[in-house]
Amino acid sequence: MSSAALTDLDGLPLLASLSHTHRAALAGISTREDFDPGTRLFEQGTSADRCWILLKGCAVVDSDAPGHGRMAVQSVGPGELLGWSWLLPPHRWHFGATVVSPTTAVVVDASELRKLADADPVLGYRLSLILVEALVSRLQATRIRLIDLHHNPGGH
């Protein structure tokens, strides 16, 4: 990964709790990629082998709803983490995701990230906190959406 991408990681509030050395290690197992709208990043049930940190653009997380097809669950935008299923066995996606606007992201190799976290407990702990914080934020957004849907059933 180029030093420009390391600069991208150094500037992300999401990774502020990581040392520069840890961000450099993360950059070493990552690539910076651009995605066009409509690009399918991953499918529910397939192998979770990477995660994305969006630098610009937007992706929509979706779920297969029997009898209804794909249903949008949440949008993920700049500075946010996309994809957590790589962390826990069996390392399969619980959702799917599609890019909906021109997007640039840091794409992290999940297998290598697990190795880094296992080898460095401080990094592993900090990554766990980042993931828990992202998960809590996502759960709060889902809760708000469910409350809104309950109070405005015909509005969505």
Automatic annotation (TrEMBL):
Domain Cyclic nucleotide-binding: 14-114
The protein's name: Cyclic nucleotide-binding domain-containing protein
Domain of life: Bacteria
SUPFAM superfamilies in the cross-refs: cAMP-binding domain-like (SSF51206)
Record-linked CDD domains: CAP_ED
Pfam family, one: cNMP_binding
Organism: Umezawaea endophytica
Family annotation (PROSITE patterns): CNMP_BINDING_3
InterPro entries: cNMP-bd_dom, cNMP-bd_dom_sf, RmlC-like_jellyroll
